[in-house]
Amino acid sequence: MIGGGQLARMMIPAAVELGVEIRVLAEAEGMSAALAATAVGDYRDRDTVLAFARDVDVVTFDHEHVPQEVLHALIDAGEAVHPGPGALAVAQDKLVMRERLSELGLPVPDWGRVETAAELDDFIAEHGGSAVVKTARGGYDGKGVRVVRRAAEVAEWFATLAEDGNAGALLVEELVDFRRELAQQVARRPSGEIVAWPVVETVQVDGICSEVIAPAPHSAGRVADLAEDIAVRVAEGLEVTGMLAVELFETVDGRVLVNELAMRPHNSGHWSMDGATTGQFEQHLRAVLDLPLGATGCREPWSVMVNVLGGPAEGEMVDRYPEMLASHPTAKVHNYGKSPRPGRKIGHVTVSGDDLDEVVYQARAAAAVFAD
Amino acid sequence: MIGGGQLARMMIPAAVELGVEIRVLAEAEGMSAALAATAVGDYRDRDTVLAFARDVDVVTFDHEHVPQEVLHALIDAGEAVHPGPGALAVAQDKLVMRERLSELGLPVPDWGRVETAAELDDFIAEHGGSAVVKTARGGYDGKGVRVVRRAAEVAEWFATLAEDGNAGALLVEELVDFRRELAQQVARRPSGEIVAWPVVETVQVDGICSEVIAPAPHSAGRVADLAEDIAVRVAEGLEVTGMLAVELFETVDGRVLVNELAMRPHNSGHWSMDGATTGQFEQHLRAVLDLPLGATGCREPWSVMVNVLGGPAEGEMVDRYPEMLASHPTAKVHNYGKSPRPGRKIGHVTVSGDDLDEVVYQARAAAAVFAD
């Protein structure tokens, strides 16, 4: 696994149970996945990555940022790489993503490729006076995304494009009037088998995932079917291998539109570690190893995951364990081994049960014990 | 954790999720828990153990075999040791165990301490012509246990005692007419909190645990209450810290008697990793760290665990994954990273669900794929 963050860390338990040896190329010493880090180095460096990959059976990723030339060098060296460069190219560039999804006929917000402020102002004028502008690369957790009413509000992004000299462009999208956000996860093996979890509802605060309810309330039937159908078409159309998360808008007029894609285990699927028969980390391992995939049903009627964002102002998450664990005996705490810092995802809590109100309450209250 | 077997291995995922750093003193290189092994050495060697324990917050165990003098050396060095030497002394010697349980007024089979063949023949004559003889130390998985009709059948055990010169004795017990075997697990913190899982039914084949059904069918009410009460009294009476498993006989005349004790995570509790809100490995960590204990309810109505004993005659467990995982998508496989060998516990499979017949079928069939 390339990348030593919390997604790599949470792969370790799944690997231990399956009896799969996991090795991590971490960006630095002491990262979340340090226990399995057999190498430390720069994932953008071809030789570092090739050396790391030499003795493994399959290469997979904690993030989507490994450059295409490095991915292709791995393929040229005969390594199995999942997901492959072709799929990752779509996750790496939001303009490419919108183009490919549109080609596949999938429902997406109205969008455009804009190279100038004038083009952007035209798009805004045609879409009710506002729009969402995104940088094609490098955005995550709300970064590189801005809601604007005029092109001048992203003037510095255009300036950066001009300096870049690569004839770059920004992605602009209609501001979708959505009822809520959903996420649909599927796993796909190289040999084609694909399985879907129930669609979940995600709650974002300031562009960062705060909470996930699984399954999404009132989703059974049409919404669930639409979401699953979209994610399966994305996975098959882009030949994604491993985990795929499709972030979706459920619009006020009842449509389901694709917002973003992630080709790895994803925050929207953390609930599955505790709440589903097969968790996303185990499933990712099974998928990239081309092993048969596991059942994706819920172990209990409801699961709610709440992120621990930032964490205690003083001390570490573990300092709050006596209070948290005593007050919330059904809460499952996942600690990423990261130092608290405002806005940083340092852990999450999942609660499962029969009564959604109670489950939501317990999960939020448990996570709140870790907040300042 | 002292000891690098599968129990230490299965502690690793729980430690990763809780954000607890786990270090293992393994008996050899390449053991099940090698990923967390920071030292390799002999747990009977005082200096080896003291050096390993120097920088940890708490010492706990994969087995009960660390000698009392080493345990006391740890205590003298100021280490927190859970379970402590006093509790472990009872688990280390079956005669001591029977004496202490009898003192505590707990229901046990009729038993006796026999130093000579004549004493044993007398016990047999008084108990219907047969009895179970056990060596006080060193038995496990059916070793050191023999059903006899005359003392001559354990003549070599008496001979060994005589050579030993320690005035040793054998434990003899009535041959209990039992309907089935049960196991009751509890966890207890140093500060006193104690929680119990549902009582489970265990199936032994040739003295080795083969299968566990959780909860034990038809146990709700009297049997469950008796089992829990016994285990709580054992844990409190012996001041056990961490996990305690009490193996029980449910007799044909409706009594519940204590068979054996284990003061560590135990095979009878492996189902809880998948089937309960809090698994025994996480709970053991919480208990020995004196953190509040987790909820012990079942996530699904039934869970069945089947051991993988021996494993494939050729190859490894993973070679059977394509067949096993494809046929049993709800099965959770736990691979201990050990080479197959006749009779060796190299993994287990757990299936959970609503329909006990289906769950039993799936778990047995899944485990059978790994058999020769």
From TrEMBL, chains A, B:
ATP binds at K94, K134, E173, E174, L175, V176, E181, N259, E260. The keyword Nucleotide-binding applies. It comes from the Bacteria. Residues 98-289 form the ATP-grasp domain. PROSITE patterns: ATP_GRASP. InterPro entries: ATP-grasp (IPR011761), ATP-grasp_carboxylate-amine (IPR003135), ATP_grasp_subdomain_1 (IPR013815), PreATP-grasp_dom_sf (IPR016185), PurK (IPR005875), PurK_C (IPR040686), PurT/PurK_preATP-grasp (IPR054350), Rudment_hybrid_motif (IPR011054). Its EC number is 6.3.4.18. One of its GO terms (cellular component) is cytosol. It catalyses: 5-amino-1-(5-phospho-beta-D-ribosyl)imidazole + hydrogencarbonate + ATP = 5-carboxyamino-1-(5-phospho-D-ribosyl)imidazole + ADP + phosphate + 2 H(+). Pathway: Purine metabolism; IMP biosynthesis via de novo pathway; 5-amino-1-(5-phospho-D-ribosyl)imidazole-4-carboxylate from 5-amino-1-(5-phospho-D-ribosyl)imidazole (N5-CAIR route): step 1/2. Keywords: ATP-binding, Ligase, Nucleotide-binding, Purine biosynthesis. GO terms for biological process: 'de novo' IMP biosynthetic process. GO terms for molecular function: 5-(carboxyamino)imidazole ribonucleotide synthase activity; ATP binding; metal ion binding; phosphoribosylaminoimidazole carboxylase activity. Signal peptide: none annotated. Belongs to the PurK/PurT family. Catalyzes the ATP-dependent conversion of 5-aminoimidazole ribonucleotide (AIR) and HCO(3)(-) to N5-carboxyaminoimidazole ribonucleotide (N5-CAIR). Catalyzes the ATP-dependent conversion of 5-aminoimidazole ribonucleotide (AIR) and HCO(3)- to N5-carboxyaminoimidazole ribonucleotide (N5-CAIR). Homodimer. This is N5-carboxyaminoimidazole ribonucleotide synthase.
